[in-house]
Design a protein that fits this description.
Shape of chain A: globular
Helix content of chain A: 10-25%
Strand content of chain B: 15-25%
Radius of gyration of chain A: 28 Å
Number of helices of chain B: 13
Shape of chain B: globular
Number of strands of chain A: 31
Number of helices of chain A: 19
Low-confidence stretches of chain A: 8-24
Largest sheet of chain B: 5 strands, antiparallel
CATH class of the largest domain in chain A: Alpha Beta
Structural class of chain B: alpha+beta
CATH architecture of the largest domain in chain A: 2-Layer Sandwich
Strand order of the largest sheet of chain A: 4-6-2-15-12-13-14
Radius of gyration of chain B: 19 Å
CATH superfamily of the largest domain in chain A: Aldehyde oxidase/xanthine dehydrogenase, molybdopterin binding domain
Number of domains of chain A: 3
Strand order of the largest sheet of chain B: 4-5-10-6-7
Bound molecules: flavin-adenine dinucleotide, iron/sulfur cluster
Oligomer: heterodimer
Largest interface: A-B, 46 and 44 residues
Distance between the termini of chain A: 35 Å
Number of strands of chain B: 14
CATH topology of the largest domain in chain A: Aldehyde Oxidoreductase, domain 4
Mean pLDDT of chain B: 96
Structural class of chain A: alpha+beta
Chain lengths: 803, 322
């Protein structure tokens, strides 16, 4: 049973006079739980088109040959047999791949040097998928196998085998250094240490962002234009990389996005496949389809295995005050040297109030997949470790962990809330209000019976409850955002944005904002699937910034469209003696702000002194032949109404948004078998204005599902002797199923964010760390086994119990 | 996926003949839930991947049935696990089989997967299942067992067969052993304890395949149960499972068959657990003693798969006390 509800937080419902984005109208569509998703009918009927559904005459299929080693150099490659196979029409190896396609060292599409077992050494195009696959088997490759390093701690050890240049260290950012940590530790009543390892022998990394839909691209060079149907969340990236690979102007490439089968943070576009598919299509003049194989899908550079080790320390006084905290984190940057450690430690800066904090991160090159973005940009691992540390600290002073969170969770808001970014405005902070909501709604005070005291015991089964919260700041990126509003003569409206809906419901959120801002019925708004030819660039969904960023562009586009609409109404003499800024819309009507506003969809006749004109009646004038466009005052009728919104975060000063989430988990542990069942989850999400209620709820539930896997079993396994992946597909790798889902209550703590449209902000990510760590803490409460690593698998539980 | 020629068998005899004719280049297909995986991943050497697939679903009269002949339950090899799970006949006197069928994988797999396919299904070791046969272990035509030095968290705690430690993780097999089933083939029959092989999965000979499973009715008053532990609650092979048949269920036990699955290369019938139970009645103490006895001969490869010992022991207790 799942339930959800909104809690309007009276404390943080602040008024930000500087914000132009708060619409104070009686909201019709924002936060309405009954909104139907854009495209819901097609999805329910199975009629949505995914990029792998694209079929064309003359279509040919691309397959990539991957190296079976973690680190090697190709000494010879013989493609004679593959080329001779009937049906094969193209083979590419590192010998003949054009330089433009092979971007840069370590980012090669087809490489002679293998830094990771999923690197591609050859590509085949054939008339059938099976023929292409058969041809891969016929390519004879000889390798010189080289030593490899898989783990960050091994890579950063003195004397480690050096993979790139003179050091395996990718680069170290300046540490966060507040106050005097050592002095504070020395004066603390207790100092708690936690050595947290995500690299454990059974599992290499945790929770992949290998989404259920593999990457799929179809490229077609026709009429001097390259069409790219892609499943990526960054179609603009596809467009740019294809254009660069083929030396084409951007305008000759169109990314046509279909329905996306999820992304989970980083379904990027830089895979070898799209560039090679585009190359073959360009040279063969045929459409080429590439569907990522599972090895590649799980192993691709950005597939977000978070591998961090944390050496953490926390000082605490008996009254519950955290005196100091430090962490030295090592992150696995993979073969492309991604930044895992830096983002792993970042959230701590806004997690607790202590004035003494030292955080240091080191990323290492390894021969593994690179750490990517598992929703909540790398924060999950460090934050789970952090929450376990918080639990340990509370236990050390015998304090209720919920009270400890209330006392210590960061509660600053507005400008300067984060000392490292003194000029930034982080907006609202719902702490400690949302934590108190969580404590009340979960029944924590009656359920939690003390440290290592199960809430219930049934034979070998012991139940426990755990609590955790998460704060992190997001949204400081300043990518451009764009939106276009096209009003139709019947008063309906299209909202096209440059951001891809990756399943999270962005199209619906955009349509909700459009309906609300335009004052029209939601059912009249369509927010179609995305094509780069219909719009301009927006950032790819990520970092929970789309609602705030692209959403703002939607509001600006609506306002631009309304201004044109109002001018048209004035030209048509529907209103006299007014300027556009004196008009507004509501319930499908334009009204004069000086008079009364309609208060329902069927408002009847306007009272004396007020003028109400149907929006649809004015829109009809856009194409009415009887309507000639006289000049009225300074306005001239300019034809169809197209509102344009363009926005970049930087233009509005430095802003972030604080993302906050609190979770309690109730689990049952079988102390005989080590099995863990998550029985119940209560989640409070501090969401700003809850714009797309159902979408938000789904994001939360999805995040919880993801984190049940993270806490219990979703690990990528590697063979230490070869570095090869052992479970890179969905039969061997385990993500939670519906049978693993507990009962859930999801509450939204609503605030008004200063810069978000309607006071909204992104909420996709923060649930992850709090949900996962609440499960770890609940397991400890149930059976006394404290995790010092990712995954509480039965072996960890039983070993912890001494069995 | 490896391409192949698909042949519809028309009868048991026809299927047997085709299987003999094409020899090792042929494989049978029932529900296809496991076989197609092998073809898709190309986890075997190319030469070992079948060129011919012989379809058993077209055999007439059909091998999809559940019936009782006298006191024997007869299940056709092509009967789907879903039908077994919800058959009132099976639930009547063979409830542990129903319990096992219900927890196999997921609803879609149970809708397609057959009982014959389940007990003949290949090993699940992730080294063996690696795409393009990257590890070339002894089971897939190469040499050695990389899992021993490598990641053997799911492998046998009761030693290897022919150097292979991969367990038989199927949920149906232990029940067949506990209930003393007979596996009928086109060429003869095997008692369940003679049917399974720790390396080849089964002892079926060339041209031989399963046509029926026969299970006698357990003695009146006996207690049977099937329990399973897995990391996730659906679509997951057992980390360990356990099927029991104890006679009688209440009072002094005269006979007991305690079978552990997913901990050894074959379903493991524990004589030690039976000895611990006979002459006693079921209680928390005897259950714990039987659990301990069931794993008394276990020798895990390392700390990595040691948990299976405690887990299996815990499952014996759970089954007995259920
Ligand atoms: C994702 C997934 C999860 C799973 N989880 C579980 C689980 O939890 N528990 C469990 O027990 N099983 C599990 N399985 C295995 C599943 O039960 C089997 O795949 C299924 O029962 C096989 O039946 P099938 O009819 O589809 O066999 P097929 O795939 O058609 O055949 C499987 C093998 O048996 C051979 N075969 C088929 N029929 C016969 C016959 N009559 N005589 C001789 N040989 C035959 C085939 O040649 C082939 O080698 C899982 C499988 C998958 C794919
Ligand atoms: S356990 Fe068996 S299947 Fe697995 S690697 Fe060893 S020999 Fe191969």
């Amino acid at each position: 049973m799942y339930e959800s509800f909104n809690i309007i937080d009276p404390v943080t419902k602040e008024n930000y006079p500087q914000s132009i984005y708060h619409n104070v109208k009686n909201l019709q569509w924002v936060a309405n739980p009954k909104i139907l998703r854009q495209g819901a009918g097609a999805r329910v009927m199975g009629n949505e088109i995914y990029s792998n559904d694209i079929l064309m005459t003359n279509l040919v299929y691309l397959k990539l040959k991957r190296a079976p080693y973690s680190h090697a150099t190709v000494t010879s490659i013989d493609v004679t047999k593959a080329k001779a196979l009937p049906g094969v029409i193209g083979v590419l190896t590192y010998n003949d791949v054009p330089n433009l396609i092979n971007a840069a060292p370590y980012f090669y599409c087809i490489s002679k040097d293998v830094w990771n077992s999923t690197e591609c050494v050859a590509a085949v195009v054939a008339t059938e998928e099976d023929i292409a696959e058969q041809a891969l088997a016929l390519i004879d490759v000889k390798y010189t196998v080289l030593p490899f390093v898989l783990h960050q701690d091994d890579a950063l050890k003195a004397g480690a085998y050096i993979l790139h240049g003179s050091t395996n260290e990718v680069g170290t950012a300046a540490p966060i250094n507040r106050g005097d940590v050592n002095a504070a530790f020395a004066k603390s009543d207790n100092v708690i240490n936690l050595d947290w390892r995500n690299v454990t022998k059974p599992f290499f990394g945790v929770h992949p962002v290998a989404s259920v839909e593999q990457e799929s691209f179809t490229c077609n060079w026709e009429n001097e234009r390259m069409s790219v149907w892609s499943s990526t969340q960054s179609p603009w990236g596809s467009l740019r990389s294809v254009a660069a690979a083929l030396n084409l102007p951007y305008s000759k490439v169109a990314a046509l996005n279909c329905r996306m089968g999820t992304g989970f943070g980083n379904k990027g576009s830089d895979g070898a496949g799209v560039k090679i598919a585009a190359y073959f299509s360009y040279t063969l003049h045929r459409p080429v389809k590439w569907y990522q194989d599972m090895d590649g899908h799980f192993g691709m550079n950005s597939s977000a295995w978070t591998c961090q080790n944390h050496v953490m320390k926390m000082g605490v006084n008996k009254d519950g005050t955290i005196t100091a905290m430090s962490d030295v984190c090592q992150g696995n940057g993979g073969y492309r040297g991604n930044a895992a450690a830096q983002s792993g430690i970042a959230p701590f800066a806004v997690r607790i109030k202590t004035a003494n904090m030292y955080l240091e991160g080191h990323d290492a090159y390894t021969c593994s997949q690179g750490a990517g973005i598992p929703r909540c940009v790398q924060h999950v691992q460090g934050s789970v470790a952090f929450s376990v540390l918080m639990d340990m600290a509370a236990e050390s002073i015998a304090m209720d962990p919920a009270d400890f969170l209330v006392k210590n969770t960061y509660d600053k808001a507005g400008v300067g809330a984060q000392p490292e970014f003194p000029t930034y405005d982080v907006g609202c902070n719902s702490a400690p209000g949302y934590i108190n909501d969580l404590i009340a709604l979960s029944g924590w005070k009656s359920k939690w019976k003390g440290w290592k005291t199960p809430t219930a015991v049934n034979g070998p089964k012991k139940s426990g409850i755990g609590i955790s919260v998460h704060n992190c700041s997001h949204g400081s990126l300043s990518n451009p955002e764009s939106a276009t509003i096209m009003l139709e003569p019947d008063g309906s409206c299209r909202c096209v944005t440059g951001s891809q809906d990756m399943g999270q419901g962005w199209r619906t959120a955009a349509a909700i904002m459009t309906a609300e801002e335009m004052g029209i019925d939601y059912s009249l708004v369509t927010s179609p699937n995305f094509a780069t030819e219909n719009t301009q660039e927006s950032r790819s969904p990520g970092g929970s910034t789309v609602t705030r960023g692209t959403g703002t562009a939607v509001i600006l586009a609506c306002r631009d469209a309304k201004e044109q609409l109002f001018k048209l109404a004035i030209i048509a003499k529907k209103f006299t003696g007014v300027t556009p800024d004196q008009l507004e819309t509501a319930y499908g009507y334009i009204y004069q702000k000086s008079g009364a506003a309609p208060t329902s969809w069927t408002p009847g006749t306007a009272p004396a002194g007020s003028v109400w004109v149907k929006i649809a009646d004015v829109c009809a004038l856009m194409t009415a032949t009887a309507f000639t466009a006289p000049a009225v005052g300074t306005y001239t009728y300019g034809g169809p109404i197209i509102g344009r919104g363009s926005y970049a975060t930087g233009r509005n000063g430095n802003m972030m948004q604080l993302q906050q989430s609190g979770t309690t988990a109730e689990v049952e542990v079988d102390t005989n078998t080590g099995e863990v069942e998550v029985k119940n989850i209560v989640e409070i999400c501090a969401c700003g204005r809850n714009i797309f209620y159902q979408g938000n709820f789904n994001q939360i539930v999805g995040g919880i599902a993801f984190m049940i896997g993270h806490a219990l079993y979703s690990g990528l396994a590697k063979d230490e002797a070869t570095g090869l992946d052992l479970n890179p597909n969905y039969t061997l790798f385990k993500c939670p199923t519906s049978a693993d889902m507990p009962t859930m209550s999801v509450g939204f703590n609503e605030t008004l964010e200063p810069y978000g449209p309607f006071g909204g902000k992104g909420t996709g990510e923060p649930v992850m760390p709090s949900a996962s760590s609440s499960i770890f803490n609940a397991i400890y409460n149930a059976c006394g086994v404290r995790s010092k690593q990712a995954h509480m698998t039965p072996d960890v539980i039983l070993a912890g119990l001494g069995k | 996926m490896k391409t192949f020629t698909h042949i519809n068998a028309t009868s048991i005899a026809d299927a047997g003949a085709k299987l003999t004719q094409y020899g090792s280049s042929a494989k049978l297909i029932a529900g296809g839930t496991d076989l197609i995986r092998l073809l898709k991943t190309r986890c075997l050497p190319d030469a070992s991947l079948p060129q011919y697939i012989i379809n058993l679903k077209t055999i007439t009269p059909t091998l999809d049935y559940i019936k009782v002949d006298g006191t024997t339950l007869k299940i056709g090899a092509l009967t789907r696990l879903h039908d077994i799970a919800f058959s009132t006949t099976v639930l009547g006197s063979w409830s542990s089989l129903s319990q096992a069928a219900r927890v196999v994988s997921s609803w879609p797999i149970r809708q397609m997967g057959t009982i014959g396919g389940n007990i003949c299904c290949q090993k699940q070791c992730w080294y063996y299942r690696s795409t393009w046969n990257k590890f070339q272990c002894v089971l897939n035509g190469g040499t050695g067992c990389p899992a021993v030095a490598g990641n053997h968290r799911y492998e046998s705690v009761f030693g290897p067969t022919n150097g292979c430690y991969s367990v038989n993780p199927n949920d149906i097999s232990p029940v067949l052993l506990a209930l003393s089933a007979t596996i009928v083939t086109n060429k003869g029959s095997y008692t369940a304890d003679k049917f399974f092989d720790g390396f080849k999965i089964t002892n079926l000979g060339a041209g031989e395949f399963v046509t029926e499973i026969d299970i006698p009715t357990p003695a009146a008053g006996s207690k049977q149960a099937f329990v399973k532990a897995s990391e996730r609650r659906a679509v997951d092979f057992a980390s360990a499972n356990c099927a029991i048949l104890v006679t009688p269920g209440t009072g002094t036990i005269t006979a007991a068959r305690i079978v552990l699955g997913a901990v050894a290369t074959v379903p493991y019938l524990s004589a030690e657990a039976a000895t611990a139970l006979i002459g006693k009645s079921i209680s928390a103490d005897t259950a714990a003693a039987a659990g301990a006895a069931a794993v008394s001969k276990a020798s895990p490869i390392s700390a990595l798969n040691k948990y299976k010992v405690a887990m299996a022991s815990g499952l014996v207790q759970r089954a007995l006390l259920s």
